[in-house]
Amino acid sequence: MIVINLLYEREDIFPKAAFGYLIPSRENSHLLGVLFDSCVRHQTDKQKRGSQLTVMMGGAWFDQ
């Protein structure tokens, strides 16, 4: 599995506060899911540091 962490300076890139989403295996995508870290952590993180997300790729569906 590959995990990619992204940080954007803007704080308003997500359409609404959410945990993230998963991609069903029937979609035949290398992408497994995306976590909206800054939405999940916003209540405990007193310093606003933009928008953070984690992209998960690979796993059993990735053949490379």
Automatic annotation (TrEMBL):
<protein>
    <submittedName>
        <fullName>Uncharacterized protein</fullName>
    </submittedName>
</protein>
<dbReference type="InterPro" id="IPR036188">
    <property type="entry name" value="FAD/NAD-bd_sf"/>
</dbReference>
